[in-house]
């Protein structure tokens, strides 16, 4: 294949450089990028230059770099993250209005859970979730939900990677993991008590997509105080069901009587009813001139 | 420079392919991608394969493609989009709770305005804003705000590109644009009446960043009914000021007495107070193992 050196494509190296940026290292010097990417300095310099030329990195006045808004723009066209978030958001808000701690939407990224959005009350308990951040699937209730309904060999691969519990309350063994996953499949929700922090408890339910496959999880993080989770689990399962219903209606043909309004925008946008009507008649409107 | 053919880098071609996806075309066939990218078919095929290998595109069961969640993840590390949104969100919610129509956060993307987030009431007026969508700066109140405080030659370049008003109420001439921009700089907010749709009116105020440079705009879209904008403009300017104050505190050295809590996460994350304290002591926590 063209444009490869040592079997690695130019694009792979660009991803390697972009991946050195993280929520706790949003700005880096060229030297830091080079070190964290494990690329030779001259290669790192060239890749950074190419990324800057394409607006995917921005060079600041103090000669540090940060991820460019252009990359965010291109990534905003993901039905699996931004589209799901748009469709789910009214229900996430509905849960948060009741729970008043943390309510969040998560998706699976291979063996990790990826945080798509999070609403947090100012006085809420400790929650390690960061938008765009990851945790190993087995370390949170949302991850456990995604793992319980995984249709691949994720469980085996997680056991190979090692469970590495963060606290003494985390999942310690294969048998414990298998038991927890069976219970989640039976109950339709997961509870994680102190897996990531002793004072916090996660509760999460699966969100099914148009093909009845689990495409995400809606979860809350609340105090780990032993209180009954029945009310919250019903609230979450109800919200998850409504998100699933809306997803289904966004993926029906636009002319179907149950289809949501908004034409070809439905899978990515949830705005007011009048706005959706307007958009439905303006396909191509979103293209900058 | 290596890895270029015809002076175009492999990365540029990848961006060209990704840019064919839009909020109203989130899923495409290989043929559609190839046609919209204006790349030769064989090149488009190769670039798509490379993007799939890196998780930046996903191939679906029906052989169509969509933007991969991995691209969203990499793009979530933008202080200028996601970081700004996290810091601004409580104030966006505060404005929306009062206005109950549309409240949104926007940033500049050269000569366009880019929508970072939007809250919409179900019964709100028509608003063409889509998350990740663009409009020419001169077509909305938020764009006018960003143009009024632009520190480059954006006004001249917009006049070269052509004003192309969407409605008869839009800005029609150089002299009108110059007058509007002068008024915005004097008033500290912009009003656009029916620029994009006759029933809608936009009102927006500038958000200043740590260097006192305008880094975004907070705006509302409300009915174009001629009512007094004084109250809303004060609400927006107050919210913008509070976002600016918080941005400043997120960019102070962590040990400064006025710095916001959260250590190296402050510029990208706004969670509960206990969560920020926790994160401050867990730099590197966000890295997947």
TrEMBL record, chains A, B:
Q: Which GO terms describe its molecular function?
A: DNA binding; DNA-binding transcription factor activity
- Protease is among the record's keywords: no
What GO biological process terms does the UniProt entry carry, in alphabetical order? negative regulation of DNA-templated transcription
PROSITE patterns for this protein = HTH_ICLR, ICLR_ED
- Annotated HTH iclR-type domain ranges read 8-69
List the keywords (alphabetical).
DNA-binding, Transcription, Transcription regulation
Q: Which SUPFAM superfamilies match?
A: GAF domain-like, Winged helix' DNA-binding domain
**What InterPro entries does UniProt report for this protein, alphabetically?**
GAF-like_dom_sf, HTH_MetabolicPath_Reg, Tscrpt_reg_IclR_C, Tscrpt_reg_IclR_N, WH-like_DNA-bd_sf, WH_DNA-bd_sf
Keyword DNA-binding: yes or no? Answer: yes
Residue span(s) of domain IclR-ED: 70-249
The cross-references to PANTHER family, in alphabetical order and at most eight, read:
HELIX-TURN-HELIX TRANSCRIPTIONAL REGULATOR, ICLR FAMILY (PTHR30136), HTH-TYPE TRANSCRIPTIONAL REPRESSOR ALLR (PTHR30136:SF24)
* Full protein name: IclR family transcriptional regulator
């Amino acid at each position: 294949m063209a444009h490869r050196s040592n079997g690695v494509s130019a694009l792979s190296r660009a991803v390697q450089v972009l991946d050195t940026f993280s929520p706790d290292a949003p700005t880096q010097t060229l030297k830091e990028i080079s070190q964290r990417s494990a690329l030779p300095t001259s290669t790192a310099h060239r890749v950074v230059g190419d990324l800057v030329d394409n607006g995917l990195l921005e060079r600041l006045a103090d000669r540090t770099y940060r991820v460019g808004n252009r990359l965010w723009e291109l990534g905003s066209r993901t039905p699996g993250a931004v589209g799901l978030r748009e469709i789910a958001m009214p229900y996430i808000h509905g849960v948060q209005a009741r729970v008043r701690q943390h309510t969040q939407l998560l998706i699976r990224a291979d063996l990790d859970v990826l945080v798509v959005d999070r609403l947090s009350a100012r006085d809420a308990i400790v929650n390690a979730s960061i938008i765009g951040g990851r945790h190993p699937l087995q370390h949170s209730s949302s991850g456990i939900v995604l793992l319980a309904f995984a249709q691949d060999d994720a469980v085996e691969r997680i056991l190979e990677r090692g469970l590495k519990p963060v606290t003494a309350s985390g999942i310690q063994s294969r048998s414990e993991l298998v038991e927890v996953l069976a219970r989640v499949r039976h109950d339709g929700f997961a509870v994680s008590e102190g897996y990531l922090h002793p004072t916090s408890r996660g509760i999460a339910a699966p969100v099914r997509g148009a093909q009845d496959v689990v495409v995400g999880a809606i979860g809350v993080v609340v105090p780990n105080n032993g209180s009954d989770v029945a009310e919250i689990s019903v609230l979450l399962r109800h919200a998850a069901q409504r998100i699933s219903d809306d997803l289904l209606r966004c993926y029906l043909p636009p002319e179907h009587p149950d289809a949501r309004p908004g034409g070809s925008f439905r899978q990515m946008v949830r705005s007011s009813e009048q706005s959706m009507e307007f958009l439905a008649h303006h396909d191509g409107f979103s293209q900058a001139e």
